[in-house]
Design a protein that fits this description.
Blueprint: H1 2-21, E1 31-32, H2 35-58, H3 68-84, E2 87-99, E3 102-111, E4 116-125, E5 128-138, H4 142-172, H5 177-188, H6 202-225
Antiparallel strand pairs: 1-2, 2-3, 3-4, 4-5
Helix pairs in contact: 2-3
């Protein structure tokens, strides 16, 4: 019995939340205007909303690019146009003095997909009234808001888990760093081949060749003076220049 009562209570809460999601949004706080002034501001607000609809429908956003306030208003309405759908009229309209020399006008838009509120803030200046800001607020039901919140939660948690998995993968690769360092150190410690001996200068080689020729001539002359046929019987060990003069 308790289980069934719990189920019935949950179903009742769900239906209550769904019903709350379709209610009219809270009015902007402010001082009420007299009926004539309020109707004038509401009429001007309807004209502004109609202008936004025409600009978005015709795709002529570039014509208002020079005015930053109007451009922001057109961009905001354009981003919400798909959720609003076709507009059949206006509803829940009001205008209040929301501050010192400031008037807030809210125009409810009746769309076939969602309803919306176009809230305009108008400042009173010495030269007259000037449009300060325009915001388009789509009226989403509570289940839709809960669905969007759930999707945002899943997206945020999914992104977090993906990042954590990537970090864990990168940390797991740290164990290969010592192996890479050891391989690099072995390459650095490989024996370097000794440089080849530089060839003897050409002058020294030429001098040695000239001395050998002189030794051979002297040895042949000594052998001939002694009547020997070859120079095998003696060895010329050194040659010195004589200081005596002939």
């Amino acid at each position: 019995m308790k289980k069934w009562l719990s189920v019935i209570g949950i179903i009742t809460c769900v239906f209550a939340l769904t019903a709350c999601g379709s209610t009219t949004p809270k009015r902007v706080s402010g001082t009420a205007l007299d009926k004539t002034s309020e109707q004038q501001w509401i009429s001007q607000g309807e004209q502004i909303v109609s202008s936004l609809q025409q600009i978005v429908a015709s795709g002529s956003e570039e014509s208002v690019a020079k005015d930053p306030v109007v451009k922001a208003a057109v961009d905001g309405y354009k981003n919400s146009a798909e959720d609003i759908g076709a507009v059949s009229g206006f509803m829940d309209e009001y205008a209040v003095a929301s501050g010192d020399k400031q008037i807030t006008v809210s125009i409810g838009v009746d769309g076939d997909v969602h309803d919306a509120d176009v809230v305009m803030v108008i400042d009173e200046e010495s030269s007259g009234y000037k449009l300060s800001s325009v915001a388009t607020n789509v009226r989403y039901s509570m289940p839709e808001l809960m669905e969007q919140a759930g999707l945002n939660t899943v997206l945020g948690m999914g992104t977090t888990f993906v990042v954590l998995i990537l970090l864990a993968f990168l940390i797991s690769l740290f164990r290969f760093i010592p192996k890479i360092q050891a391989a690099m150190s072995k390459k650095e410690e490989a024996p370097v081949p000794a440089p080849a001996a530089a060839p003897a200068p050409a002058e020294e080689v030429a001098e040695e060749t000239e001395d050998d020729a002189i030794i051979a001539v002297i040895a042949a002359a000594v052998a001939a003076s002694e009547g020997a046929q070859t120079t095998d019987g003696f060895v010329v060990r050194s040659i010195r220049k004589s200081r005596s003069r002939f």
